Amino acid sequence: MIGHEFYMNVAIQNAMATKGQTDPNPLVGAVIVNENRIVGIGTHLKAGEPHAEIHALKMAGEYAKGSTVYVTLEPCSHYGRTGPCAEALVKAGVKRVVVATLDPNPLVAGRGIKILEDSGIEVLVGVCEKESRQMNEVFNKYIVTKKPFVILKSAITLDGKIATATSHSKWITSEEARKDVHQLRHETGAILVGVNTVIKDNPELTTRIEGGRHPVRVILDSQLRIPLESKVIADSLAPTWIFTSQQYLETKKQQLEQQNIKVFVTSGTDRVNLEDVLFTLGEHSISSLLIEGGGEVTASFIEQKLIDKLVLYIAPKIAGGRQAPTFVEGIGVEKMSDALEFSNIEFNQLGKDYKFVGYPNY
After folding, report:
1. Is the peptide bond before 241 cis (omega within 30 degrees of 0)?
2. Is the pLDDT of residue 1 over 80?
3. Which stretch of DSSP H or E encloses residue 186?
4. How many C-beta atoms lie closer than 10 Å to residue 232's C-beta?
């Protein structure tokens, strides 16, 4: 007999394949098993389209009756753009539903389970729970706080440099690492840099993989110094949103808006209010944000405890130089005991480089 974990892992792997295309909805996979045979597989493909359970039920057809359904997230219980999946499972006559995790929204958690149990369906919760929660770390934050999950990413040398003293930075890491970055961009709703990065490097901030999704380009620019000829302004490859402070120039704002650039004025007096940025992105259904800024932008997010995850690509190189920019600048801490620590750490090798993933302990 194949165990519950096997079928749930099949559902998780199918759900992971849609990463980057379901925002702001979660990644969800479903597998239907009847007499030890998979008869239906479904994945939520895009917000507004049928949920994973519905796709799986359609594939299973009459074999759904008396089956066991494995689903990575509690079946929904509400009417939205699609009907309640819990009711669809009841109508199909399934015998048992195995769920990895409950809905993270405390307002609805458990309601889908109740519909199933009230209809006499056996329910088992918690199979591969850790894997499912990690898969949906973005959704789990967004659905509760209505703010995006913030990923801080940087490519650094062994001595923490993001460029040389002459501002030369191409390329710190290998092609393998750069491909991984573009996959990360594809999976994220928005990408953020400061205006200094735009002025120095004139980046496109797009995804360079076949079929990849371009994130919304977010620029922090407290005085609207961004050049109108910048690629992020002129190329129309992806939406560009600029966040500014109360010191913005009205004439420049009008010029930018004439080029279909959204300009948001935050409450910050002379600096962009980062909380306002996150709140506004959340209001526009941006559930994840990738920060690729310089050391000052990075320091601002860290000092205000706004990052949820750190992704570092570390090249086996030493650049040196007192004036060479580092990954995190800002004021810094006074005592080593105040330094920010990370947990749930992963290390992987990509070509010649290493990828560090960790979660801050605030």
Report:
1. no
2. no
3. helix 175-187
4. 26
- The pLDDT value given to residue 82: 65
DSSP string, 51-99: PHHHHHHHHHGGGGTT-EEEEEE----S-SSS--HHHHHHHHT-SEEEE
Asked if 239 contacts 216 with a C-beta cutoff of 8 angstroms, the reply is yes
| DSSP secondary structure letter of residue 337 | G
Q: What pLDDT score was predicted for residue 358?
A: 97
The CB density around residue 175, as the number of other CB atoms within 10 Å, is 12
For 70, half-sphere exposure in the C-beta direction (CA atoms, 13 angstrom radius) is 28
| Local structure of 216: helix, strand or coil | strand
Q: What is the pLDDT of residues 304-352, one digit of tens each?
A: 999 999 999 999 999 999 999 999 999 999 999 999 999 999 999 999 9
pLDDT digits (tens, 9 = 90+) for 60-116: 999 999 999 999 999 988 776 667 899 999 999 999 999 999 999 877 789 999 999
Instruction: Read off φ and ψ for residue 4, nearest 5 degrees.
Output: -60, -35
Quote the pTM value. 0.90
> Alpha-carbon distance 143 to 139, whole Å?
6
How far CA 248 is from CA of 61, 100, 140, 243, 271, in Å, comes to: 59, 48, 35, 10, 10
Residue 9, Cβ neighbours under 10 Å: how many? 19
Residue owning tokens 């898969």:
135
Phi-psi region of 323 (alpha: psi -120 to 50; beta: other; left: phi over 0): alpha
Which pLDDT score is estimated for 256?
97
Catalytic residues: 53
What is the rounded average pLDDT for all residues in the chain? 94
For residue 150, count other CB atoms closer than 10 A to its CB.
23
Q: Is the separation of the CB atoms in 209 and 187 below 8 Å? A: no
- Measured at the CA of 331, the angle between CA 311 and CA 149, to 5 degrees, comes to 30
Helix axes 85-92, 111-118, angle to 10 degrees: 20
